[in-house]
Amino acid sequence: MQQNSDVPPRRNPGITSLAAAAVFLASGTSTGHAAESTVPAPNPCPSVVAVDEDVRAMYLEMLLDPNATTRIKPSATDNQAKREAYQRALAAQQARDWANLCRYQADNAAILATKQRPRVVFIGDSITENWQLADPDFFGANRVDRGISGQTTPQILLRFYQDVVALQPDVVHIMAGTNDIVGNTGPTTDGAILDNIRAMIDIAHANDIRVVLASVLPAKTFSWQQNEQPAQRIQQLNTKLRLLAKRRNVVWLDYHTALTDPDGGLPTTFANDGVHPNRTGYAIMRPLAEEAIAEAVR
Known about the structure:
The protein is an alpha/beta fold. It folds into 2 domains: 53-96, no CATH class; 105-296, SGNH hydrolase (Rossmann fold, 3-Layer(aba) Sandwich), CATH 3.40.50.1110. It has 13 helices and 5 strands. Strands 2-1-3-4-5 form a 5-stranded parallel β-sheet, sandwiched between helices. Helix 6 (126-134) links the parallel strand 1 (120-124) and strand 2 (143-147).
């Protein structure tokens, strides 16, 4: 981990929420004349995707329990049908809310209502989302988890203001890039990934939020994309992210070195599927995160 002494980017108070512009455009107000009637804006979050708790619990334990691969055997027929229905519901939700701004809307409102801002917000994809489930004691009022499974850096960037800036934390922990590499929202370049993360850092700095930039975790293969061999690209991207952290004067957090095996993969000791950490993997990550957060606020 390292923090550069360079001067941070110039703060720009003009950076505001994209949502504010959307509200203005949706208001229907015409110039020169007061609106005679008000048309209610459509609810962007009309429903929440139903989750079958049995399937959810089974799936999470298969990922998080270091011994799960030897003792959990899902019921093929029943659970397969439930998973397919859930995936269809998720696809329909993404069609109307691509960045999943609805996901934490109510939770964010509840935090804002307390008028007590969290010290740290963790934002990212499923690796961040699962962390709270694997180690709930690590999170709470002072550490808030804003990970969403499957997300890529453009999606995370779109919700950065809502899920980070609006909560006014001291520090944001950014960890993303795995799903960009696998192409969850289409093929992309390392340059595009860096641009998205650079934008997050700049928005954080403009709002007096310090940044911990975490490496992409190692992976030799993706279970859902067997043709991909991402280990070398992940290492190359991490080299670029480390340089970005230095240039932007943010704390670099190298999980990759702590978790990788000689082949550039995430060993079974730390991950049941080679991509998502299990509880043992998160136990390795926790003190590294604590140290990096402490460094960021010095």
